[in-house]
Amino acid sequence: MSGHQAQRTIHVGGEWRAAVSGATRDVLDPADAKPFAVVAEGGVPDADAAVEAARLAFDHGAWPRTPVKERAALLRRVAGLLVRDRESLGLLESRDAGKTLEEGRVDIDCVADAFRYFADLVVAEGRGRVVDAGSDDVHSVVVHEPVGVCAMITPWNYPLLQASWKIAPALAAGNTFVVKPSEITPLTTVALVDLLVEAGLPAGVANLVTGPGHSVGARLAEHPDVDLVSFTGGLVSGTKVAQAAAVTVKKVALELGGKNPNVVFADSCATEEGFDTAVDQALNAAFIHSGQVCSAGSRLIIEESVRDRFVAELVRRAERIRLGRGTEPGVECGPLVSAEQRERTEDYVAAALAEGAVLRTGGARPDPSPERPATGFFYEPTVLDQCHREMRVVREEVFGPVLTVETFRTEDEAVALANDTEYGLAGGVWTADAGRARRVAGRLRHGTVWINDFHPYLPQAEWGGFGKSGVGRELGPAGLAEYRESKHVYQNLAPKPVRWFAG
């Protein structure tokens, strides 16, 4: 957050400022629950000022009319600055969100990739799509224009990555925006706006309000001068955003998480290498970033014939995961992001046990150590066996290091279990049978399906889900299209009377 005082984290019209109310908020390190930064606690007046600045910049500023190549060049400059500051930004993301330092570094790499991708995409798309009108006397073309003022409400688990999935395409398309990061993890979004300013983005194009969702986020969603709202977060909050946006019929994009199946067929474990890989990937699917991932493979759905051996090995390895402060060498998994999130996880585990689940490992706060202060929000990787669809822990998104185990006997049963969810964000299929892989992937109602893998994504491929996982897509060509309006321009080159009416 170089270039301004820490508590001046609201950026409006090219200037850093404190909250109108003067309120501030401490940002806690989840590894020890101690404050390590202070940000402005914005409110409705700050949101209104930010929208006003973005509206002015869109309606009268240069950015929406800046040539595409110049906009792309700025995005590439931002990518270069991210590379330059990779270490400091990765450390900040690690400390703010509780993830390991290596995860933080990888996040910064992915953010730079997103800016490069949308810079390349917007240039490659050219100057519109010519439409054949069936006559040499007609020139017909579909062009793309920016939506206008975009409100972006981002989550706490991948603060900078999720912000970049919105900011990069919005800027590439020529929009202005107001971004509201999670009040829990706002710091790297503040740093990104600093980089946008350094890269030469005109004043008023990028605006930032740090503050709570119930006031700032709600105001952005309902604001009549906002043309699009993009929200990533929980289902309950996302529903409120959609309801607020509906009053002014603004465009809405929602990514609301998932309850993601990881389906393991016995044939994938027929060799020792296959077995080892499937177990390893099941751990990654469930416990990366302490399970605080919208696409976490938190439902292990495994063929009955290999279930006992697979779960036993999974439990053995889960018990060896090294928990601690993400910046400490050798740590593999950090804390949960907040006390509230840990309590939520504990409630889900307690409910599952009451409903008949069998605790195979975890289910408790770990003993303190130098890497795990007693005040930190740590929770052991947890495996719950003998689970079924009626359990809350199977139906609802926990967002913690909790893996449930279900079994199947037939391919049809596996597909039915995997699709038996209100969500539909992502899922994995493990099999050595190429035909089965294609069949099952084709039948799964999820926005991303991995075959013999879990978690990778590509900036050039759309990301989003079916059902209650949300509406719209991020990344890929569709991710750019979210921030555009299509306009059909029909030109008659040889106009003449129609003579429809006798006159």
TrEMBL record:
One of its GO terms (molecular function) is oxidoreductase activity, acting on the aldehyde or oxo group of donors, NAD or NADP as acceptor. Coiled coil: none annotated. Residues 16-489 form the Aldehyde dehydrogenase domain. Pathway: Amine and polyamine biosynthesis; betaine biosynthesis via choline pathway; betaine from betaine aldehyde: step 1/1. The active site is at residue 255. Transmembrane segments: none annotated. InterPro entries: Ald_DH/histidinol_DH (IPR016161), Ald_DH_C (IPR016163), Ald_DH_CS_CYS (IPR016160), Ald_DH_CS_GLU (IPR029510), Ald_DH_N (IPR016162), Aldehyde_DH_dom (IPR015590). The keyword Oxidoreductase applies. Keywords: NAD, Oxidoreductase. Belongs to the aldehyde dehydrogenase family. This is Aldehyde dehydrogenase family protein.
